[in-house]
Amino acid sequence: MHRPSRTSTSIVLAFALSLASLLPASPFLAAHAQAQAQARARARSFDQEILGPGLYAYQTRVREATCGDDSQTGFVSTFMGSINGIPGSRSMEMKLINNRYWPEWTITVRPDGTVVGAARVSGQTREAGFEVRRDEGRFVGTGSRTYQTTINGERRNCTVHVDVLLRRFDV
Fold first, then answer.
1. Is 130 exposed, middle or buried (0-12, 13-18, 19+ CB in 10 A)?
2. Segments of the chain scoring below 50 in pLDDT
3. What integer pLDDT is reported at residue 16 of this predicted model?
4. Could you tell me which residues come within 8 angstroms of residue 57 by beta carbon, excluding any fewer than 6 positions away?
5. Is the dihedral of CA 42, 47, 49, 51 positive or negative?
6. Full set of structural domains in the chain with CATH
7. What pTM, to 2 d.p., does this model score?
């Protein structure tokens, strides 16, 4: 059985491509080319391997609090949850099962590998966020949460700054 060589295959392919360039443009070929370009663009949006869906522990430790309603004691709060989404996607969601104030997060993986989380309680002025980077099988960084409270009869915006650890459970 004779197998064509790479050289003969390349020559045939080049000949076919040169013939195709002589043919009038086909709506089918144009639509196919457009679909291919869109598929390549979608593939680029799913090109991260930093963070995937799964079960995670999200831990925070207070660094400072602007309203004095929390302090740097070294106490670590641990929240359990899942990161849900399409593997490789730069945008996913995190749902914490034991955090009544910040149960739902939007997770974004930036091209530089930074993982950013953002949470907002709808209808309220509470927001939380974090930025972490991979460090030996876990993600470490900092975050903050902001909210309004009344202190001595005065309405104030408060911020608590935290250290953050995000670690996936191997199941």
1. buried
2. 12-13, 16-17, 19
3. 47
4. 78, 79, 80, 165, 166, 167, 169
5. negative
6. 6-45 (no CATH), 54-168 (2.40.128.120)
7. 0.69
